Amino acid sequence: MATALENSPRTGGKRVILAEPRGFCAGVDRAIEIVERALEIHGAPVYVRKQIVHNEHVVRELEALGARFVDSETEVPDGAVCIFSAHGVSPRVRDNAARRHLTVIDATCPLVAKVHQEARRFARDERTLILVGHADHEEIEGTFGEAPDRTVIVQDADEARRLELPPGTSAAFLTQTTLSVDDTSEIVSILRERFPGLVGPGSEDICYASQNRQNAVKAIAKRSDLVLVVGSANSSNTIRMVEVARAAGTRARLLPDADRLDPAWLAEVETVGLSAGASAPEVLVEQVIERLDALGYTEIETETTASETVVFKLPSGLQRPGQDDAADAEDAACAALLARATARIEELLSAECSRWGAVDARAALPVEAVAELVAAGGKRLRPTFCISGYLAAGGDPDDPAGQDAVVAAAAGLELLHAFALIHDDVLDNSPTRRGVPTVHVKHTAIHAERGWVGEARRYGEGMAILAGDLAFGYANRLTAGLPGPAMEIWTDLTTEMIIGQQLDVALAAEPAPDPDLARWIAVCKSGRYTIHRPLALGASIAGRSDLQETFEAYGVAAGEAFQLRDDLLDAFGDSATTGKPAGLDVNEHRMNLLLALAATRDAQVGRLVADGLEGGGWDPTRLRAALLASGADQEIEERIDRLVASARTALATAPLTDGWRRRLGEMAARVAYRDH
Ligand code: 0O3
Ligand code: SF4
Predict the structure, then answer these.
(1) 230 pairs with which residues across the strands?
(2) How many structural domains are present in the chain?
(3) Pocket-testing residue among 22, 51, 87, 243, ligand 1, by greatest number of atoms within 8 A of Cβ
(4) Rounded-to-integer distance, Cα 80 and Cα 71, Å
(5) Could you say which of 6, 67, 354, 542 has the lowest number of CB atoms within 10 Å?
(6) CA-based nearest residue to 632, from 675, 592, 576, 672
(7) Which of 77, 109, 141 represents a domain boundary (last residue)?
(8) What does the pLDDT read at residue 149?
(9) Do 435 and 350 lie in a common domain?
(10) The CATH number of the domain where 12 resides is what?
């Protein structure tokens, strides 16, 4: 973003100090590009709800290209294209748009979307949400709309001091992304003092761009007689930058564009500090520099306090042809290999169904049970990691032998997982999986309905044990031809998974809180079985043993985050989204990592766990309430954030392409922050 002017410093006159970083952030860049791409793809007009970003020049330029800006989605003609601005919208707006059959393109900045996700989480945990921000700002209107009945808005320190909540309220706070870092920290301290037990977001809501621009303005303010911040009057982050300069003791003014620079402001000003808000185009800064130059400010210097590399991907379907060819090619290669793995499973199971069905319809029942489970969906995480390991390691997507091996390994992993799930559902006594009855429950019901002899439950469980056994056998059959080093990984993986299950069962029988053992189980079952070993398997098929250490560090961290998310979803998730009943671990006395950590850190949770052990069972409702009151969910969210960061660190210096480093980083975040 360097201008010709700043690259050619001149000396002799009065001075301009340019702040760096300044101007467009990644969210604004993305939002503007979304409108441009939508116009190219759909043709004019496309409708934009509110200003796409708070800058009058940006809006005018997009209007000239054919964008129509409206105040409400209700003004958009039925069925037309409607873009939501970078500031985000409430669920009500999305509903209105759906009712009008609008083709919605969402330009909400991913960092604003993260705050919405946190609001939904706190609402789900039945907390009162204290939303720190400006009530009349679109971003706050959108976030507030996630949980209007349980959200209060606090705009400044005075309101934080005056806020009253009923005693015993379990509260959480979130903030607008563009607030002043210093003011917000004061407001949050007041809230924390007033409401002990208050929890906050897993990671800072004030975004990197707001923080960087405020720091840069502070730095130039110290050396300037006047600070000018280019941007529009309705831009929150820009106004905050003006306030930050003033708080540093320097005169400061908002400057919408060069024409509005009043020379009278410059009386007795030797040094002008110059920056721009996150929504101000660089061309406006260049025009201000030219104007200042004409007024005698001919010496230009840049003060850099941070460098920014953040780029957000465009929504799918909007990428420019050739813009992300490498990522598209990787996506296509992954998808093609995954499709082949699925086809391999279907081929095998359908041949087996015919073979055993010909003997007797009943002989095919366990094979059908496996096929139904595979067909019911699932995330295909293990095959995806295996194929990713292969491609990230440079495995040639066109080498037929390598391809065959990785497809077999990926298919084997999915069948191994089917085996684990079918047996796990018996162990957990789980009624549903992937939204449908589990194998043992389905066959127990069939037995009961038909009035067959013997115990229905034993029949159902017997069927599930045999279906699982078959899946395990098929998985081993598929992987039987793997090369030696890959076979060693396969053997380790299958054994670790079963031992992990065994320890899970043992801890359910004597559920003393033991976070170290619970963590070991999580590492074994999720870190290694789900992520590390599948990646290593793929890399090994590609002939790369040097990636094992990286994949171990990455997989163990991302896997623990995955398991912790699983525990959170189990305890507090919505069964309509997860496809399995909520609270199963608590109901079945599974001492998972969440419970083990909470029981050792919080006296009330510890007491309930201990009482349950003595009294013959846990009380799931009270235990869940105590978990929420202890803030364990919040602590776990923070731990998940740290684990995702560690997984990314493990990739940072690994011998991988930048594309794969980014991709694997995104995969770690996806497994850690999933909602099902
Ligand atoms: O939120 P703000 O008024 O600062 O919005 P701008 O000026 O359009 O800048 C982009 C920031 C944003 C979309 C919210 O984080
Ligand atoms: Fe996103 Fe921050 Fe830019 Fe707002 S200011 S659009 S949150 S990057």
Answers:
(1) 255, 276
(2) 5
(3) 87
(4) 15
(5) 354
(6) 592
(7) 109
(8) 97
(9) yes
(10) 3.40.1010.20
> For the segment 488-506, what is each residue's pLDDT rounded down to a tens digit?
999 999 999 999 999 888 8
Q: What is the pLDDT of residue 325?
A: 62
Ligand 1 neighbour 87 (Cβ under 6 A):
yes
Distance 204 CA to ligand 1 centre (A): 17
Angle at 112 between CA 106 and CA 116, to 5 degrees: 90
> Would residue 635 show up in a list of annotated catalytic residues for this protein?
no
**Residues 651, 653, 655: CA angle, nearest 5 degrees:** 85
**Cα 226 → chain centroid:** 41
Burial class (CB in 10 A: 0-12, 13-18, 19+), 477: middle
Return the HEC string of 309-341. Answer: CCCCCCCCCCCCCCCCHHHHHHHHHHHHHHHHH
Band (202; pLDDT cuts 50, 70, 90)? low
> What mean pLDDT comes out for the span 399-421?
95
Residue type, 546: D
The radius of gyration of the chain's CA atoms, rounded to the nearest angstrom, is 29
* Average pLDDT of the chain, as a whole number: 90
Residue 207 Cβ < 6 Å to ligand 2: yes
The number of the ligand nearest the C-alpha atom of 88 reads 1
The answer to whether the peptide bond before residue 21 is cis (omega within 30 degrees of 0) is yes
Instruction: Determine the 3-state secondary structure of 254 from DSSP.
Output: strand
Range of the domain at 376: 329-481
Considering the domain boundaries, does residue 204 fall inside one?
Answer: no
Residue 285 CA, ligand 1 centroid: distance in Å: 18
The reported pTM is 0.59
